[in-house]
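User: Need the bound-state model for KG4:
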Amino acid sequence: MWSERPILGIETSCDDTCAAVVTPAGEIASNVISSQARFHDRYGGVVPEVASRHHLELINAVVENALQDAGVELCDLAAVAVTSGPGLIGALLIGLSAAKALAASNSLPFVAVDHLQGHVAANFLQPDPTEPPFLCLIASGGHTLLAQVEDHRGYRNLGETRDDAAGEALDKAARLIGLSYPGGAELDRLSRDGDPAAFPFPVGMKRADSLDFSFSGLKTAFAYKVRELGPEEARRRKADLAASFQRAVVTSLVEKVEQALDQTPVGKLAIGGGVAANSELRERLTALCERRGLELKVPPRELCTDNAAMIASAARYLEPVEHPRYLDFDAFARHAA
Ligand code: KG4
Ligand code: ZN
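Assistant: Bound-state model below.
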């Protein structure tokens, strides 16, 4: 469907301003990510208004860098692709408006991409593309989803979180024991010195038939435990608290993956999202895949976390919309129920 021209992808659904150029064959010609984490650190989480303002300030430079790194100009492109949702509505609108303006002013076709389909499509990029069918676990600061991927164009939602995302829960727990935002990676490091059995925290949705996740009960149990221990003791047992909390989050993710594999057997498991970097999750999924004879695919870290190469990758398989039929396209914060 595509000519040999590359696609420009734009992603601004949360707190990373991203642009990338990807060829029709899935080679990454450039992949620029400007993280705003340092601006949100002092608030202990992403502040939507702050994110929107930074996207607005950064988007033109980030797009320009992506084009320059790839050695292409707008007139060389096959299309402009952008995340239209789900995510923070103000943040999404900055990327969407920029993408529409860039496409329209060059009479280019346009592709609106679902952010989660983008995470799935990170697996289709070179140099090590994974072919469907596979099961895909996406766990990040914004989402926790089990996707059944049958082809390149979409996925079936097998289950998702009913409240907090896995990364969000890890970040909130990390904050309660004094780690800076986003605390998932530091909690991971700290856990290596702790006893994961020190505090038996509850695993959400453990006995449910559903493949949905829940982390809010766990988060509350953690907050109560920290309060019960008191500041002195909580500080002293920080590593035990971290290891026990991480154990509960990872167990919840791994058990739902197992449950999904029992229901719908496939030969491959892919993981994405920032939490895919977690060492305990990787170890346990590696063991699970060895036990079941499955192939485990973990894209490189910069393709697991939010990026625009995955958005351009997803766009390769979607129908482009010709100019000017996309001018009234809108962003959406959530998937329709
Ligand atoms: O995909 P991502 O960069 O985008 C957002 O959702 O914004 O994911 C970020 C999440 C954060 O919650 C962060 O704490 C978590 O990924 N994370 C980790 C690790 N590295 C990053 N969680 C657990 N273990 C890690 N090593
Ligand atoms: Zn994401």
